[in-house]
Amino acid sequence: MFDSTCFHRQLAHGVLLAAFATLLPLSASAQTGKTFTNSIGTEFILIPAGSFTMGADKNDKDAEDDETPQHRVSISQTFYLGKYEVTQGEWEAVMGSNPSKFNGRSNPVEQVSWDDVQTFIQRLNAKEGTRKYRLPTEAEWEYAARAGTKSTYSFGDDAGQLGAYAWYDDNSGSQTHPVGQKKPNPWGLYDMHGNVLEWVNDWYNESYYSRSASNDPAGPSSGQTRVLRGGCWYYSAGCLRSARRSIGTPDDRDDRGGFRLACSPGQ
């Protein structure tokens, strides 16, 4: 069961994703461009290298201790990130089954654990041979979610605008929705706020930000729980902030949790 302050404020519930498309294998030109679509229909956007301020302002009324202190982080290499959360159709194309509670091929897959996601990634890598798919690091995820912004959300500080960008407790009807129905962030990524929480690669440590590396931080070297980012259909507005962190054990499966793929260019 995922653990977060938002979870404790709102009581428990469970979740994960959806969607599918079969396209031709990647061409060399597609793999080196600003976007590409892989063999199972996952669309990717090239995220530029750069620097940003990670974490929450300690004066933010919704900030939690594990979101502070704010610290400057540099992402030294470009990387690809999924335009959408991985869908149920994409999961089925690789795994042959669908574990999700809220059925819909274009909905994000959910009820997949961090360990399950690693199996999916291994099989997708094997299927395509040379392309190295992975989960984003927590720093890469927040960098892409902020998309050059410093505000509470990627669109500003006004939570009243969330309905245009995210599925959350005010508008979700207590379920997930097909990916890409809301507005994207400034870098063209959809559902970075809401719909499902997204597993990232990092182990979790509450005080990690106080000693995080400034260049390409990869999180603690070990731990008991993994990090999820992004908020979900079940959470309130304060839990959808760009800085928000949630956690789960690697074997947790919940109807609030899915993932988004990252990919390193040239692999």
Strand order of the largest sheet: 2-3-6-13-8
CATH class: Alpha Beta
Question: How much is the radius of gyration in Å?
Answer: 17 Å
Examine the coordinates and then state which fold CATH places here, giving the name of the CATH topology.
paralog of FGE (formylglycine-generating enzyme)
The best one-word shape is globular
- Number-wise, the strands total 13
Helix content: 10-25%
Taking pLDDT < 50 over at least 5 consecutive residues as the criterion, the unreliable ranges are: 7-32
Provide mean pLDDT, rounded. 90
Keyword list:
paralog of FGE (formylglycine-generating enzyme), five-stranded antiparallel β-sheet, 267 residues, four-stranded mixed β-sheet, alpha+beta
